[in-house]
Amino acid sequence: MEIDTTVLLSPVVQKDDMKKTYDGSIQLIMGPMFSGKTTELIRLIKRFTVSKKRTVILKYTKDVRYGEVNEAVSHDQEKWEAIPTMELMPCVKEALHYDVIGIDEGQFFPDLLEFSELMADYGKRVIIAALDGTFQRKVFGQITDIVPLCESVRKLRAVCVFCGNKASFSMRTTEEESVEVIGGAEKYCAVCRKCYHDKCVFPQTRKINDFIEPSEKRKRKDHEKLDQWSSLIIPSAICEDSQTA
User: Fold this and answer.
1) What gap in Å lies between CA 118 and CA 146, rounded to an integer?
2) Residue 195, class by beta-carbon neighbours within 10 Å (0-12 exposed, 13-18 middle, 19+ buried)?
3) In the predicted model, is pLDDT for residue 216 greater than 70?
4) Which one, of 190, 110, 176, lies nearest residue 142 by Cα?
5) 142 pLDDT exceeds 50?
6) In the chain, how many H helices and how many E strands?
7) Is the pLDDT of residue 206 over 90?
8) What is the C-alpha to C-alpha distance for residues 27 and 152, in angstroms, rounded to an integer?
């Protein structure tokens, strides 16, 4: 069921001089745990505040890992005042008073796409910090869906706690299976691809032979080109991160 957004808009916005301008933007900062997403969000909010823009951060109500209900807090203890909420659309009236709207832990909001698009259409700059995947490396909330609507998308990477290489994934270190388990270093760590498979408490059981027909499971002859077999293993990477941690 679609929400009638005119009910949520303040009387000021519904006047003729406050029509949609379509000159806002949506910026997505995503990555695994401990990659600096909230730190970067706070840095940008501080910058816009210095330039006399009206700024606000909306945070997920249940995220009280560091005991701060009314603040967005990063793992390195960067803090900024924030409005806690379980959903974003009820915050429309309040958000329209600001020029720049930050959203922390965007993966948890069920109405992230609707709210962000509406704000951008009304000329607001929306900056979202969010995990790009679950601890099982699956789609998390509406993050994948909002990518086509963004003017800017950045993927940050962390440091693998096991080998020190660049980490692209979040690994849960407890045996809790629910997707939404909020926590910090006591429940999660950042890992690279190899260490994810080597150390994960939820191991991947499927192997490459599971995807090859029995007739294809034969030894390669010396005269056959290797590239004829490479497609049966793993395709080479076709892109690189645009942003490193």
Assistant:
1) 12
2) buried
3) no
4) 110
5) yes
6) 7, 12
7) no
8) 5
Tell me whether residue 105 is one of the annotated catalytic residues: yes
Higher pLDDT among residues 72 and 154, named by residue: 154
Q: Which pair of structure tokens corresponds to residue 134?
A: 């679950």
| Per-residue tokens: 52 | 């006399």
Give SS3 for 171.
Answer: strand
Given a contact cutoff of 8 angstroms between Cβ atoms, the answer to whether 3 and 114 are in contact is yes
Token readout for 138 is: 């699956």
In the CATH scheme, what architecture does the domain 20-156 have?
3-Layer(aba) Sandwich (3.40)
Tens digit of pLDDT for each residue in 69-113?
Answer: 777 777 666 777 899 999 999 999 999 999 999 999 999 999 999
Domain coordinates of the chain in residue numbers?
20-156
Catalytic residue among 81, 105, 114, 176: 105
